[in-house]
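Input (structure):
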Protein backbone atom coordinates (compact mmCIF):
# COMPACT_ATOMS: atom_id res chain seq x y z
CA UNK A 1 0.00 0.00 0.00
CA UNK A 2 1.29 3.45 -0.83
CA UNK A 3 1.89 5.52 2.27
CA UNK A 4 1.74 9.24 2.63
CA UNK A 5 4.63 11.20 4.15
CA UNK A 6 1.99 12.60 6.44
CA UNK A 7 1.99 10.28 9.46
CA UNK A 8 2.11 7.12 7.31
CA UNK A 9 -1.48 7.56 6.20
CA UNK A 10 -2.50 5.59 3.09
CA UNK A 11 -2.45 7.66 -0.06
CA UNK A 12 -5.99 8.47 -1.13
CA UNK A 13 -6.88 6.53 -4.23
CA UNK A 14 -8.31 8.49 -7.12
CA UNK A 15 -10.99 7.25 -9.46
CA UNK A 16 -8.82 7.01 -12.52
CA UNK A 17 -11.90 6.80 -14.72
CA UNK A 18 -12.69 10.41 -13.80
CA UNK A 19 -9.29 11.64 -14.98
CA UNK A 20 -9.00 12.85 -18.57
CA UNK A 21 -7.43 10.07 -20.63
CA UNK A 22 -4.84 12.53 -21.99
CA UNK A 23 -3.26 12.88 -18.52
CA UNK A 24 -4.16 9.52 -17.00
CA UNK A 25 -0.58 8.16 -16.90
CA UNK A 26 0.53 11.42 -15.28
CA UNK A 27 -2.19 11.17 -12.64
CA UNK A 28 -1.20 7.60 -11.81
CA UNK A 29 2.47 8.58 -11.55
CA UNK A 30 1.64 11.58 -9.36
CA UNK A 31 -0.42 9.51 -6.94
CA UNK A 32 2.17 6.72 -6.81
CA UNK A 33 5.31 8.86 -6.51
CA UNK A 34 4.50 12.48 -5.64
CA UNK A 35 1.40 12.50 -3.43
CA UNK A 36 3.29 10.83 -0.59
CA UNK A 37 5.00 14.11 0.15
CA UNK A 38 3.21 16.78 -1.88
CA UNK A 39 -0.27 15.53 -0.89
CA UNK A 40 -3.18 14.20 -2.88
CA UNK A 41 -4.15 17.72 -3.94
CA UNK A 42 -0.65 19.20 -4.01
CA UNK A 43 -1.11 20.81 -0.61
CA UNK A 44 2.28 19.68 0.80
CA UNK A 45 3.02 19.12 4.48
CA UNK A 46 4.23 22.14 6.47
CA UNK A 47 4.97 20.05 9.57
CA UNK A 48 7.47 17.89 7.67
CA UNK A 49 8.56 20.75 5.40
CA UNK A 50 7.34 19.12 2.18
CA UNK A 51 6.35 21.95 -0.15
CA UNK A 52 3.13 22.53 -2.00
CA UNK A 53 3.22 21.61 -5.66
CA UNK A 54 4.07 24.54 -7.89
CA UNK A 55 1.15 24.12 -10.25
CA UNK A 56 1.91 27.19 -12.35
CA UNK A 57 5.27 26.04 -13.74
CA UNK A 58 5.93 25.93 -17.46
CA UNK A 59 6.88 22.54 -18.89
CA UNK A 60 10.55 23.61 -19.02
CA UNK A 61 10.47 24.73 -15.38
CA UNK A 62 8.74 21.49 -14.40
CA UNK A 63 11.37 19.42 -16.23
CA UNK A 64 14.14 21.35 -14.47
CA UNK A 65 12.52 20.64 -11.08
CA UNK A 66 12.42 16.91 -11.89
CA UNK A 67 16.02 16.86 -13.16
CA UNK A 68 17.49 19.02 -10.39
CA UNK A 69 15.26 18.60 -7.31
CA UNK A 70 15.73 20.51 -4.08
CA UNK A 71 15.86 19.09 -0.56
CA UNK A 72 14.91 15.45 -0.13
CA UNK A 73 13.01 15.11 -3.40
CA UNK A 74 14.43 12.29 -5.55
CA UNK A 75 15.55 12.86 -9.13
CA UNK A 76 13.18 11.89 -11.92
CA UNK A 77 15.52 12.63 -14.81
CA UNK A 78 14.91 9.38 -16.68
CA UNK A 79 11.20 9.75 -17.44
CA UNK A 80 9.89 9.55 -20.98
CA UNK A 81 8.95 12.96 -22.42
CA UNK A 82 5.36 11.89 -22.97
CA UNK A 83 4.99 10.86 -19.31
CA UNK A 84 6.60 14.08 -18.09
CA UNK A 85 4.11 16.10 -20.18
CA UNK A 86 1.20 14.12 -18.73
CA UNK A 87 2.44 14.58 -15.15
CA UNK A 88 2.87 18.30 -15.82
CA UNK A 89 -0.63 18.60 -17.25
CA UNK A 90 -2.11 16.70 -14.31
CA UNK A 91 -0.21 18.81 -11.75
CA UNK A 92 -1.66 21.93 -13.37
CA UNK A 93 -5.14 20.67 -12.35
CA UNK A 94 -4.17 20.66 -8.66
CA UNK A 95 -5.06 23.61 -6.47
CA UNK A 96 -2.07 24.91 -4.46
CA UNK A 97 0.45 27.53 -5.38
CA UNK A 98 -1.00 28.63 -8.74
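Output (sequence):
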Amino acid sequence: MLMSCEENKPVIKIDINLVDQKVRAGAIFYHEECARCHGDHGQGNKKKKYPKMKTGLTLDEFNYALDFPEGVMPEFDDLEDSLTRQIHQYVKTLEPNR
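Notes: Helices lie at 24-38, 59-67, 81-91. The mean pLDDT is 82.
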